[in-house]
Amino acid sequence: MPKTVKEISKLINGELVGDGELTITGINGIQDAKVGDIAFIAHSKDEDFIDSTKASCVIVPKDIRKTFNKSLIKVDYPSLVLSKIIEFILPDSIPHPKGIHNTAVISQSAAIGKNVSIGPYVVIGDKVVIGDNTVIYSFSYVGKNSNMGADCIIYPHVTIRESIIIGSRVIIHPSAVIGSDGFGYDTLRDGSHAKIPQLGTVIIEDDVEVGSCVTVDRARFAKTVIGKGSKIDSLVQIAHNVIIGPYCLIAAQSGIAGSSTLGRNVVFGGQVGVTDHVKIGDFVVAGGKTGISRSFPAKTTLFGYPARPADKAKKLIASVGLLPKLFERVKMLEAKIKELEKK
Questions:
Q1: CATH assignment of 105-312, among 2.60.200.40, 1.10.10.10, 1.20.1250.20, 2.160.10.10
Q2: Is residue 157 flagged as an active site residue?
Q3: CATH 3.40.1390.10: does it fit domain 3-89?
């Protein structure tokens, strides 16, 4: 639906610079935009793109001071307003299915809220509760006694095992598994492995997003928790009894072993590994491929394996790079010592 730049600026409480009567019909990246599109830059370092883009209007951060021959809308966080603009201009750009498909298998004891959409071949178990306006795509499974809040989106082939608690506005992407058994075994004298029953649950709090092929294991007795507003990238493994605090960001292929605890606003790059029973403090940041084998206090930036504070890790890496020169120097000194010994 076409909107004017002025209307969009008002929607996002932005500061309009330039022609507010221009019509916007689409949204695109700054380099691919055409006339009639609105685009954005997240940081002032990218301001050179404003001159070259064909976009009719650009959303920019407020610290942009340079003058451009282009309509701009200045806001505090350009990336954050994008979803509002998409919904405003293109309200049906990602239409979800409506209604309950006739092939869905829904227990008579399940409590289904208002305006819930359930796709083909979905299975809803006994005593499941699903909140209003939730959408469950095809071939998903929700096990007995699980409880899901309002406005959730469950994409195809998601498995939610029995007795799982999911908050409101949760998004779970395709092929994720929530509540599979934790990896618990006792090794017997004959070398065989006896399974330890996993009787706990998983709690996913409000506004969490879980990527494709993520596995979140149920606790042995108590609960595995993903805190409010946390975002889990694809292919992440979260083991039993892990507690992830609110507003954490966990990038792809990371793995968190059993009974470890993450504080609030922890950020992991890709392929971070965490051993079991460690505590990671609030606002810790771990770079990609960091291996965390012990606890760390709040506001620590980590890197490397084993994980170290980033400044120490960088010095060690730099020192390793000097080893070939040091080796040659030692060889040279050894040769000189041998010559002196001959005299």
A1: 2.160.10.10
A2: no
A3: yes
